[in-house]
Amino acid sequence: RMKDSLVDLKVYPEGEDVHMTLGEVLGWAQVDLDRPMDQAPNDQWLPTGQVARELLQGPAGVASGTFPTPRTSGMVIDVDLKYYNYRQAPGMTSANSADPNSRVQSSTTVCIMELDPHLRWTNSDIQTEMYSDIDNYQHTQSYGIQLTATSSGFIGRFNLGLFIGNIVNGLVLMSVATLAVTFIASYMMGLKSPFFKSFIQERADFSEEYARFAAQLIAATSIFDQLDTSKDEYLSQEELYKMVRQ
Q1: Which one of 18, 92, 114, 236 has the lowest number of neighbouring Cβ atoms within 10 Å?
Q2: Which carries the bigger pLDDT value, residue 115 or residue 244?
Q3: Alpha-carbon distance 116 to 29, whole Å?
Q4: Do 50 and 112 fall within a single domain?
Q5: Which structural domain range is residue 46 located in?
Q6: pLDDT at res. 33
Q7: CA dist., res. 227 & res. 18, Å (int)
């Protein structure tokens, strides 16, 4: 496939060795080595920036004003090998699909090769040859088609232990165990359930709570007055020691 396309240019059946020629790759990529870069079908792979296009015509200051052919300049084709299974691949359908090229079993692993051409000057390392005459030497710089391969995709396998672990973690986060114990103690323990429920869900009467707080406040105030012998509304360390000794 071409990058960002769902059209299968060629399909290799499962178990068949993958063989392809450079000519086939260039044909799939719609690249004509002997046409200038700015002519169809090569112009679709030109860079969009004006500066980048001018550099294809030659170095700054000596640009020829015309684009070279890919056979002269070379080019780069990025090859992305994407692996999928469980029908996660884009454009892959179920095993009952009418299109034989898109029928994939759920557990079958497939590899989609995506091509992304780039027209630019592509050269290998410079080779320098020295001759017996020290004043003579030769630089050799080759231009050609460079294929860069990367791999990616989504490969998955069902893991029962991990699945159960995720369920348990989810139940813990939702406090399911606490809710279950509370429900059983409150409603499923027979005659003991009302007793347990009264402790779990203690009822509060605001008027009684106000009265209890007022009584505790009166008692605390009375005790404080008894302990504050200096009547400075402050319990000193000596007064506290006296209370402990008593």
Answers
A1: 18
A2: 115
A3: 8
A4: yes
A5: 22-154
A6: 92
A7: 97
Name the domain count of the chain. Answer: 3
Q: Is residue 63 one of the residues assigned to a domain?
A: yes
Do 143 and 28 reside in the same domain of the chain? yes
Task: Report the b/e string of 87-102 with b at 16+ CB within 10 A.
Answer: bbbeebeeeeeeeeeb
Nearest-5° Cα angle at 157, 153 to 160: 150
Cα separation of 218 and 144, whole Å? 98
Question: Would you say 85 and 153 are in contact if contact means Cβ atoms under 8 Å apart?
Answer: no
If one compares 83 and 55, the residue with the highest pLDDT of the two is 83
Residue 166 has pLDDT above 60, yes or no: yes
Pairing of strands 145-154, 75-84: parallel
Burial of 119 (0-12, 13-18, 19+ CB in 10 A): buried
53 and 34 assigned to the same domain: yes
pLDDT of 80 reads: 94
- Residue 14 lies inside a defined structural domain of this protein: no
Given a cut of 90, whether residue 188 has pLDDT beyond it is no
